[in-house]
Write a structure and sequence with these properties.
There is one protein chain. This protein is α/β, with parallel strands linked by helices and 258 residues long. Helix content is 42%, strand content 15%. It has a seven-stranded mixed beta sheet, sandwiched between helices. Helix 5 runs parallel beside helix 8. The N and C termini lie far apart (36 Å).
């Protein structure tokens, strides 16, 4: 079986209201990119018909027995990908999938290990209908994470990220977080290993319902993020393979952010 250029991992939880339409949209968009690709949906213990719908449509579906968290689902999917480049995004496919072509090019042709969507970049387009309280909580959390953990990567929670397939398997094999804090943990480790990272603008095209509560989840994530440095100092994230990949990289850490 030939190896696809791109694998797309979709975590889904109780998504029966939108999963069929959004997977059809994503599949059509990938077809226009003219890349050999695969879509892997990980059903995160849904109590509705999400998994049955995905299987009826003919997409690969990995079922988790219980609801374990967004990153638990993504980790399960990344373990199974075959693509040279892997991208994960949300089940409602909120961002224009055309950026996936750029992500593949940057990882497979230009040598970047990770390519991350960033809503703070000038050419990004996002909807401005969030409440004032939500905006304040989101910006406050983003600023705190940037100061404490991720430095020049301000938008850790953007829902689309890509990486070279082998790098992704190694990184995701180290992650301890199963919930939303996994985004920060992923980027923290990428920075610690001095992997080549590129930020790219994104265009928000679909704003569905979200279960994220910025204040509640932000406080919970802050507590989880506080443990990252301790784990790193105790050697819990050690990977000789990632150190070798970073040492062999000709790109280095990306200082040019679009």
């Amino acid at each position: 079986m030939s190896r696809p250029a791109l694998s797309v991992v979709i975590p889904a939880f109780n998504a029966e209201g939108h999963i069929e339409e959004r997977l059809g949209f994503l599949s059509s968009a990938l077809g226009r990119l003219k890349l050999e690709s695969e879509i892997i949906v990980v059903d995160d213990g849904s109590t509705d018909r999400s998994a049955a719908i995905v299987e009826r449509l003919g997409f690969r579906c990995i079922r988790l027995e219980r609801n374990s968290g967004k990153f638990a689902a993504i980790k399960a999917g990344v373990r199974e990908v075959r693509g040279e480049c892997c991208i994960f995004t949300d089940s409602d496919v909120p961002y224009d999938p055309s950026v996936m072509g750029l992500m593949v090019e940057l990882t497979l042709e230009q040598g970047f290990h990770l390519v991350v969507g960033d809503r703070t970049l000038p050419r990004s387009e996002v909807l401005g209908d969030a409440s004032f309280g939500r905006l304040i909580a989101t910006r406050g959390f983003r600023h705190a994470v940037r100061l404490l953990v991720t430095g020049e990567l301000p938008d850790t929670q953007c829902g689309i990220k890509g990486f070279r397939g082998d790098v992704g398997k190694l990184l995701f094999g180290l992650l301890k977080e199963d919930g939303f804090a996994g985004d920060v943990e992923l980027l923290y480790l990428a920075l610690k290993y001095n992997l080549a990272i590129r930020r790219v603008p994104v265009r928000l095209i679909h704003s569905g319902c979200t279960s994220v509560k910025p204040l509640r989840d932000g406080l919970q994530m802050a507590a989880q993020i506080a443990s990252l440095r301790g784990r790193y100092r105790r050697g819990m994230y050690e990977s000789p393979e990632l150190r070798r990949i970073a040492d062999e990289s000709v790109t280095g850490f990306a200082a040019t952010f679009d």
